[in-house]
Amino acid sequence: MPKSDQGSRLIVALDFDDPEVAFKMARQLKPTGCRIKVGLELYLSGGSELVRRLVDDGFDVFLDLKFHDIPNTVARACAVAARLGVWMMNVHGLGGKKMMRAACDAMEALDRVPLLTAVTMLTSHAEEELSQLGLKDTGIQQHVGQLADLAKNSGLDGVVCSAHEASDLRERLGPEFLLVTPGIRPAGVPMNDQRRAVTPEEAVEFGADYLVVGRPVIQSVTPMSTVRDIQRAIGEY
């Protein structure tokens, strides 16, 4: 994790379809306790005003919309998203180098530039699904590594990947390239639709900078206690 970053490594995914429910959860979590992620479901229900409100409330917001389109469209979308004051956002690595480079260039003139990461492969995917994606001759590790190389060469700050790939990517891309790992499940918590999940302790051991946790926190009876348990597990609290 960047030495200049004094915030939490934990990002809580506010996976709700009701903005008011999301705000109620955010009030329980507090900006000093963790970062938060706004994904497609919540963004579609609350829009940019929801993001601005969370930012104004003091949260570091990871806007997880996985932009993937022609370079000009993604560049313009990233510039608009950056003006919302988000801390981090992402594009999809499969958009290619021109698209990712355009996203970086679009934000260079802004006063405050968020971290920009690229999604490599969804943590809901497993090895056997690669052939369905036209990648039957490429293993997950190789595919993720190639997209991570492309992201770094395009000027991005890091990638979103499974913690299973983190050790290889850390060695391959160096200590400053950010690794954001979803699919984190504390021991004893159901996997749900995650196929390549790991515990918080494992993710940190493998080299992850930031850990994205959704249902284990937001479905907890005591969300902030669950946050503290995770932070204790990774030596943060």
Distance between the termini: 16 Å
What is the overall shape? globular
Proportion of residues in extended strands: 15-25%
Segments where pLDDT lies below 50 for 5+ residues? none
Largest sheet: 8 strands, parallel, barrel
Number of strands: 8
- The CATH class is identified as Alpha Beta
Helix-strand pattern: EHEHEHEHEHEHEHEHH
Strands in their spatial order, largest beta sheet: 1-2-3-4-5-6-7-8
Count helical runs.
Answer: 9
Q: Mean pLDDT, nearest integer?
A: 89
Secondary-structure arrangement, i.e. CATH architecture: Alpha-Beta Barrel
CATH homologous superfamily classification: Aldolase class I
Q: Rounded to an integer, what's the Rg over CA atoms?
A: 17 Å
- How many domains is the backbone divided into? 1
For this structure, the CATH topology is TIM Barrel
Relative helix content: 40-55%
Q: Which structural class should the secondary elements be placed in?
A: alpha/beta
Give a structural overview.
This protein is α/β, with parallel strands linked by helices and 237 residues long. The chain has one domain: Alpha-Beta Barrel (TIM Barrel), CATH 3.20.20. Helix content is 40%, strand content 15%. The chain has nine helices and eight strands. Strands 1-2-3-4-5-6-7-8 form an eight-stranded parallel barrel, surrounded by seven helices. Helix 3 packs parallel to helix 4 and helix 5 runs parallel beside helix 6. The two termini are 16 Å apart.
